[in-house]
# Entry
Amino acid sequence: MSERDESGKRDEFGIGTAGEPNPGRGPHRGGGFTFRPDTHPTAGWGAARSVGEVLYRTREPLAGTGAILKMNHEDGGFDCPGCAWPDDQHGLRLDICENGVKHATWEMTHHRAGREFFAAHTVTELRGWSDHALEAAGRLTEPMAYDPATDRYVPIGWDAAFATVGETLRGLASPDEAAFYTSGRLSNEASFLYQLWVREFGTNNLPDCSNMCHEASGKALEASIGTNKGTVDLDDFDKAEAIFVIGANAASNAPRMLTALAKAYRNGADIVHVNPMVEAASRKTIVPHEFVAMGTLHATPTGTMSIQPRIAGDQAFLRGLAKALLEMAAADPGALDTEFLARHTDGLAAYRSLVESTPWALIVDESGVPEAVIRAAARVYRASRRTVIAWCLGITQQEHGVDTIREIANVLLLRGNIGTEGAGACPIRGHSNVQGNRTCGIDHHPGADFLDRLAEVCRITPPRTPGLDVVRTLQAMGEGRVKAFVALGGNFALAVPDTVRSAESLRGLDLTVQVSTKLNRSHLEHGRRALILPCLGRTERDMRPGGVQGVTVEDSMSMVHLSIGRRDPASPHLMSEPAILAGMARATLPHSATPWEDYADDYDRIRDTMSHVLYGFEDFNRRVRRPHGFRLAQPARERVWRTPTGKAEFASAPLTPAVPPAGHLVLATVRSHDQWNTTIYTDHDRYRGLANLRTALFLNRADMAERNLAPHTLIDITSIARDGTRRTVHGYTALPYDLPRGSAIGYMPELNVLCATGDFSTQSDQPLTKHLLITIAPSHPAAAPADLTAEPLSAPADRTAAHVHDNPG
Ligand SMILES: Nc1nc2c(c(=O)[nH]1)N[C@H]1C(S)=C(S)[C@@H](COP(=O)(O)OP(=O)(O)OC[C@H]3O[C@@H](n4cnc5c(=O)[nH]c(N)nc54)[C@H](O)[C@@H]3O)O[C@H]1N2
Ligand SMILES: Nc1nc2c(c(=O)[nH]1)N[C@H]1C(S)=C(S)[C@@H](COP(=O)(O)OP(=O)(O)OC[C@H]3O[C@@H](n4cnc5c(=O)[nH]c(N)nc54)[C@H](O)[C@@H]3O)O[C@H]1N2
Ligand SMILES: [Mo]
# Structure
């Protein structure tokens, strides 16, 4: 029996009703919440309890534990389907993490959403279920097609499903009327086949989750150092004397990073956390594989300094860091690496004069960080001979994300911290293979030399015009320019901004195809024709005519390694992602000379082709079978700068205003500890001390007092889009938290309703999901003091007039 939604019908977009608590998208079974921000060490027994709860729910206690022991092993285990943090290369067998365990066991549930399940529930009924309940229904077991007559999904054979895809795609007026989404867990082999199919079909419309994630990092690094990836590996974390962690919640989202931070601390490194919220990773951890520490609750610090900029204030903070350093250099010649600067960089003079002409008062206002604190951080940076700067979404999902990451590069360059041991740039990637997806061709804007190689090796004529990314796909769907949509994994409907409008656009399509492991919102916001194609998970044995297959992935630090699943598949009718892709490709391109069937039978053949197309993949089949696989070259690591000048480039971007206009707040949407993007395990967020509530808004106390909001007041949140349109959610709970003034934090994907499709960064095209302009008001109309009900009306109708970027006031 599946875990049904207990709380009755919900409004599917989570908008809620004024004056009533909003149930959110998690399990929410009613009852109150508890809120006690505390300072327990991360990982350790709290983690064990939390894992226990998820294992209990998936009814997988034994198999779950067995799988964990096989995860992340160089000798034939499967790659953790969780985050992209790399594995320890020095035989650390048990560096497992709580959230990886949850993630792997979530896939291994014994529940099944088979044909009986779909016969019992109409799509309209399922739309009223929570997102937790949808996924908790269990693993999908066979291909299903939407039947409008009964409003249900009904079984369909694989061949008929492929024929539907082929027929619809071939019937389009142009290949550009279709879009092909990827979530970042697709293997390298599947990614390569996917883009080959899509390009042979004739479009570059390959939106992917990177468009919402680290697009800004890629763009900035490419411009600054000539390659779009990070430059460090785990050994560099070991050798660093200072590590800055900016805009990341590592304890929840890259938990194995805590092991690296704890180790660095013991080596004597300074660890500076820069985050409007003082997150758990800045405190202490109980290193997961240290069983004695587990027993004695002995925790190791993972932070030595916490700095709290306002949301979007990092660019100003980093500029302040550079300014303090340049001022030091007047009396301290060792403050800058002058030799490196002269030999390897371009643009220093312009940058220096820009920094010198930026007044401290502006830096302090825009960053929200006192000058003394910035100077203290600069002293830490000066004292360290080798520094790593790591960052995640707290930096990327903002209007000026690219400028901010380029400022990170500027700061690194000043002291020669790129291309040397123990130092460098470290974007913390999200999905386990999001980096590999790009490397293997999932890119709406592919480079000419990649397309040349693809054309030559695969004998196809790839289209040369750039395709659509996520926000452009949403716009094109809304305008009827895209009519068919295929998603390889993920939960597009819920992950993208503007939930209500995006769902409307999806429902207007001719065809939606979702290749998935579990039921989710994207199956319910479907086109006129709709297919659910269930695939094997990463933990499962992939038996093909050529034998048991393994796939490869690339982690955050460019290590490519094998992943082989061993468990029995959740259903005998599942197909692997490469096999499903080959089926869809053949049905779409019946006369294609590409050996789709051969590729699907034996992935060594895919890897052979990849080795001829992709730089760095030479001799792929042999090298990936070495223990730990191989590392892709990163030229900037060797101080080879593939920029137009052949040098690392300083950027001289003006400081972007970050202070919200009066009466407004800036909202960042984040993950709780108990979710994986759109997959919500429980309603708890342990490290932030919150239990049984997801519809919360963390607020600065003075911002609450100014609005006469008592703690725990029910509020409505209204966003003001750039085009002046407003979106409101009701029934959120206001929680006082240690946050800078003007900064508010709440959970994705609930709050995606508030982000307009048009509100994306002009620098990266990423949705501004950590940069939304909002107002708040008590949810119960009767409870609203007069000055508060009037407040939203006094806000300018057009965001451009009030927008944080245009109005420094
Ligand atoms: N368990 C688990 N692991 C995950 C995921 C998951 O959902 N669950 N998701 C995966 C994916 S796809 C990704 S991309 C990563 C995401 O990993 P994170 O980037 O850690 O994800 P978020 O929860 O969005 O948190 C962003 C952090 O940025 C901070 N922040 C917000 N605004 C600002 C700002 O203006 N400046 C600074 N300095 N900080 C700010 C927030 O306080 C928060 O700590 O994690 C990956 N790993
Ligand atoms: N407001 C707001 N929105 C955001 C973000 C934010 O911080 N704030 N973050 C953005 C980011 S960084 C990302 S990466 C996106 C995430 O966007 P997505 O990657 O699209 O979403 P996920 O929730 O990771 O996808 C979960 C679904 O993947 C499917 N799945 C799981 N495993 C497999 C598998 O092995 N194969 C296949 N084919 N399917 C599988 C399951 O059906 C599951 O329901 O969300 C973005 N949206
Ligand atoms: Mo992500």
